Amino acid sequence: MSRKSATQFIAFWLLRLVCYTVVAATGYIILDIAAKGWPHLSWEFLTAMPRNRMSAGGIWPAIVGTLYLVLLTIALAFPLGVGAAIYLGEYARAGRLTRTIRLAIANLAGVPSVVFGLFGLGVFVIFFNFGTSLLASAFTLAMMILPVIITASEEALRAVPQGFREGSFALGATKWPTVRRSVLPYALPGMLTGSILSVSRVAGETAPVLLTGAALSAAMPESVFDQIMILPYHLFILATNMYPSQVYVPLAYSTALVLLLVVLGLNGVAIAIRYVVRRKHSF
Amino acid sequence: MRLLFLVSGVSSIVIVCLILLFLLKDGLPFLARYSFWSFVTGTTWAPIAIAAEFGLLPILAGTLTVTAIAIAIGLPVGVGAALYLSEAAASWERELVKPFIEVLAGIPSVVMGFFGYVVLGQVVRSIFGAPVEHNALTGGIILALMAIPTIVTISEDAMRSVPKTFREGSLALGASRWETAWRVTLPASASGVTAATMLGLGRAVGETMAVLMCTGNAPVIPTGVLQPIRTMTATIASEMGEVPYGSTHYHALFMVGAVLFVLTLAINTAARKLIGRFHFRGR
To answer: pTM for the whole thing?
Structure first.
């Protein structure tokens, strides 16, 4: 082997090693949580209230709290995000306003989640007087995932061929009927995919909820003004604030596994929708 | 309808302005009670001491230390993996490995923090002889793992957008594939790789739960990477729950949030400027 190809051989093997180290680390984290979380997982763990300072019983209120939070957040963010995307994709002309909106979206996407938490605390908890509640948390998270929904929805709109719009205009339809009948129905699956991906982020988010609505321990929420338990915060508390750790770490592992399944499951659903839709509509 | 969409479109601008406004509204009163100079040059963060001190330097140093560790590990690993996937891997291999690395990005930060807290901390302690399990290095490694998917995805896109003719020219002159990857593709995609690193950096600076759990929660200026530290984000998340509304401490935490906001804004703006440059259109 020449010196040149020997160098190449070694260099590519080193890079391969680096690449598969990342793959191995990912696999190890998931397997570690699956293996140590599985033994304690049971029907009771999923459906019972926590008892005896969280050392017995289950995580039902945290599952329900996460579910409520996710649904309310998406209900608030989806219409606004889709509206903004329709404006940017179908109505806006290039100009200063459009540039400013795009800049704002990009900046919003980069704001740290804990800063959103402070914002939610200042605006929704105190200024609007929602108190630390499910509603305040959902509003805060809705602001946070807005850029993701806008970007995904705009991409979905862009994927609808221009001919669909032109055909509608040619038949004498005006702007809004064209968007409603000839564009939106075909863009909707793509919008949903992007939104489900952002929902998986909501389910795993901790810091903003910690500042605006999460409770260490709460009864089942009965109104949007109640504090809630959520899976990520419950995991945090079990892992770092409860002693002795021999009792609580196994419970934390099972909670982590449930959270991981929820988040990766949502991602899987989104990818499946995208796959099915791509095969059905290939323009 | 147009008006309705315009309003949703403009909402992003409104939200960014509101975030800034509320951070300043609750942050500026701090400067009325505590001197700006002592805030930015203070070396002690002791908010509940009788003579309370709010020195930014320890928690700023904490943030910078973990971020530096995360980039020192994440940059070579992420770029190496991207170079492998783009230049050496077979296409079926790339199609399998890339989504798998993206799964890593989907793991919630509290789960990554939990893994660092119970597993990685012990590893760091036994390999490097750290005095405690939770220190800057443990947090830095977890942050590196969280930044790597971003770095890999964007770097790989940048490398693949380097025109084929660049590579063909290099190969035609007798360079090996490795020499082409190292001397042609990598330099040609440098601005994309830098942008990827900056976005990873922005994420690392703003990350909260993982560093809160893994870094040992000690707001002191570190003298080594094996010492426990605390970041700005972790300070907000861990102290906000216990401060009385309207106290100096409360306003100090909002001020820290404003500093974080500005810091991440600067990093992300720089990243975006670079991203705009890495496409080789029309060549």
So the answer is: 0.92
